[in-house]
Amino acid sequence: MTAEQVEDLANRLHGLQLPAAPFELYPGTIIADIEAFIEAQLIMLRHNPETKTSQPAAWRLLKFLELVEPMQ
Known about the structure:
Helices cover about 55% and strands about 10% of the residues. It has helices at about 5-15, 35-45, 55-70; strands at about 25, 30. It has a two-stranded antiparallel ribbon with strand order 1-2. Helix 1 (about 5-15) packs parallel to helix 3 (about 55-70).
């Protein structure tokens, strides 16, 4: 993921009406604090957007968007 793609992802997340917590991202993966979750994932991506170690953060945010955007 490029730095530009990270910012595009952040912009998509910015205007969302966030669901109530706790929120199940995957079976067995519960987000207790959604704002802290988003911020933590974006921090990882912004520091190392093109490394393999940051890919899970991108996957988690994209999955979150996949679940939340249809609710808007």
